[in-house]
Write a structure and sequence with these properties.
Order of helices and strands of chain A: HHHHHHHHHHHHH
Structural class of chain B: alpha/beta
Helix content of chain A: over 70%
Strand order of the largest sheet of chain B: 6-7-8-3-9-10
Strand content of chain A: under 5%
Strand content of chain B: 15-25%
Largest interface: A-B, 27 and 38 residues
Shape of chain B: globular
Order of helices and strands of chain B: EEEHEEHEHHHHEHEHEEHH
Helix content of chain B: 25-40%
Oligomer: heterodimer
Radius of gyration of chain B: 19 Å
Distance between the termini of chain B: 31 Å
Number of strands of chain A: 0
Chain lengths: ~300, ~270
């Protein structure tokens, strides 16, 4: 077991962080808004943590204090939330594919800005971000609580007045407005909440990855997050979490599968080198045959009923 | 109770008893005038019918009143307040609820959730209080659920609160939509063809339901309906629209005999 954690420490933490990021895409989607802006806020949060830990609190000898990481997360969350509000108010006037395009543009703009600013280290980025833990696996102490808190938050949200208003907008914006739900307010609220969470994840990731540059939180991340949500499921928060965990682990699992001796050589090399193809095919199949993703509210209900019967 | 001639829409007499005043409201889509300088006033507690041939502008008038469409001219007053051009959620806040001609429920959600959503403007809890489950938010949530359940009971759907809205039969969906509209605690309820797709027995039951909720909740009801017997024995007054114009207004017995109405429905018999 210990060797499993030692071998896959990086992967395990990445999986958990990916699950939280998937939730940042799910939040606006609850209100029916396809926004892929969260990689932008993720990148911003990372830069905030990187700058704070390397320039404002210069690292002393020994491990970097975890309390400062928590402070960075808080700052990243607040700044991302403020930017989310500023971007969300105009952007959420757009609908459907236009909102998606605008948020892609937002991510690109942030990337270009980061590439050209002095404080973000230009193309090189910021490296040597101090480590609060001796061992990568210990990042679980930050990642797992962050995931649990955000899952609890979204799970609770789905059963509140605000959550119902978001879902009503997704189902039928016009009818929701006629029932007294303010569409703009609730869309911006979901978007801003997503930005807050993405910023916090970015702050943890910057320490975890050790370097932060303009290749973090790009359009590639947007596509990955979309895959997490589309394959995992877009109608319950469990979907994106499972999607994030599983699809992050999938390339490694395929690599492991390729190492099995009995496989013919061509198949082994396909599993090893063709994982991006397999990934893409999965996304395509998933969206065609499971438009609401693999994990749907109906599936969860059936599972719940099965468990109740077993008891 | 005069029968307004088509040529003189004129300003309606604004009295303290008028809940909704439609004042020379006009709406154009491209070159088509869907609603042409229509004026009338609905008194507090009245059951007011709106009839007319297809394309007469009835639903457009509902959309204008509820803010889904902005009028090109004229004014709308509700409880004496000018509500012209307010967005739909602001109109709803002021106490106007509606149903839709082509049922617009939240199909993937349960019947209970559909009704609970419409408690939005009558409840207060915000994001933080709701998620943390603070005392006030929790009380409010329980109360919302109780009220929604009571409304499902009122329209006769209490036996299937967890069923998804789109799984209900058409007539049941219409009644669910009424329950959802009532959850807003409206003062004015707009029903857009509530009897469409119902059989004779269901239509009778619907008439009884409308009468009883109006009495019990002291509602004012504005009703679009094609099924003439329902309108005739339910409504206190009826307005008749044809090609966007108000051609008659008055109690059912008078409107029924009005020559312009006969002509609009039957052609000029040449």
């Amino acid at each position: 077991m210990a060797s499993f954690f030692a071998t896959y420490d990086f992967l395990l933490v990445s999986m958990v962080l990916a699950a939280v990021l998937a939730l940042t895409l799910y939040l606006p989607l609850m209100a029916g808004q396809l926004s892929v802006a969260s990689p932008g806020f993720y990148a911003l949060g990372g830069y905030i943590a990187a700058i704070m830990s390397t320039k404002i609190f210069p690292p002393g000898p020994g491990l970097y204090p975890v309390s400062l990481v928590l402070l960075e997360m808080a700052v990243a969350a607040v700044v991302s939330g403020a930017l989310g509000l500023a971007v969300g108010v105009p952007a959420l006037r757009l609908r459907g594919i236009f909102l998606a395009l605008a948020t892609i543009a937002f991510v690109q703009i942030l990337g270009v800005v980061a590439l050209n600013l002095q404080i973000t280290g230009g193309a090189v980025g910021i490296f040597g971000i101090p480590q609060p833990f001796a061992n990568p696996i210990e990042y679980m102490w930050l990642a797992v609580p962050l995931l649990l808190v955000s899952m609890l938050f979204v799970a609770r949200l789905e059963r509140t007045r605000t959550g119902r208003a978001l879902v009503a907008l997704r189902e039928d914006e016009l009818a929701a407005a006629a029932m007294g739900v303010n569409p703009t307010y609730h869309k911006v609220l979901a978007f801003t909440t997503s930005a807050v969470l993405a910023g916090a994840v970015g702050a943890v990731s910057a320490h975890f990855i050790n370097t932060w540059n303009s290749r973090q939180g790009t359009f590639d991340t947007s596509v990955n997050l979309m895959a997490f949500v589309l394959v995992g499921g877009s109608r319950t928060f469990v979907g994106p979490v499972v999607g994030g965990l599983v699809l992050t682990a999938l390339p490694e699992a395929l690599r492991g599968l390729a190492g099995v001796d009995v496989l013919p050589g061509w198949l082994a090399s396909f599993l090893r080198d063709g994982r991006l193809i397999i990934f893409g095919v999965l996304i395509a199949i998933g969206t065609v045959f499971f438009p609401h993703g693999l994990i749907t509210p109906g599936l969860l209900r059936r599972l719940g009923r099965g468990r109740a019967r077993a008891r | 109770m005069s029968v307004a001639p088509a040529a003189a829409p004129g300003a309606p007499a604004v009295s303290g008893a008028d809940l909704l005043v439609v004042d020379a409201v006009t709406c154009q889509f491209g070159g088509v005038t869907a609603v042409n300088a229509v004026s009338f006033a609905v008194g507090r507690g009245e059951l007011f019918g709106l009839i007319g041939p297809n394309g007469a502008g009835k639903t457009t008038l509902f959309n204008l009143i509820t803010g889904l469409t902005a009028p090109g001219g004229g004014h709308l007053r509700f409880r004496g307040e000018d509500i012209t051009g307010l967005p739909p959620h602001r109109v709803a806040e002021r106490g106007i609820a509606r149903t839709f001609q082509n049922v617009r429920l939240f199909g993937e959600l349960s019947a209970l959730d559909n009704v609970m959503i419409a408690r939005h403007v009558r409840t207060r809890s915000g994001l933080v209080g709701g998620v943390l489950g603070l005392g006030a938010a929790r009380r409010e949530e329980r109360e919302t659920r109780e009220r929604a359940t009571a409304l499902l009971d009122l329209v006769g759907l209490a036996d299937r609160p967890e069923e998804r809205a789109r799984n209900f039969a058409y007539g049941d969906q219409r009644r669910l939509e009424i329950a959802r509209a009532l959850a807003l605690e409206p003062e004015l309820l707009l029903l857009d063809e509530p009897a469409a797709g119902m059989n004779a027995g269901e239509k009778r039951a619907l008439s009884d339901l409308i009468r009883s909720v109006r009495a019990r909740l002291s509602l004012t009801v504005l009703l679009i309906e094609h099924y003439v017997p329902l309108v005739m024995n339910l409504c206190d007054r009826i307005a008749v629209l044809n090609f966007g114009q108000l051609i008659a207004l008055g109690p059912p017995a008078l409107v029924q005999k009005h020559p312009a109405v006969v002509e609009a429905y039957l052609g000029d018999g040449a």
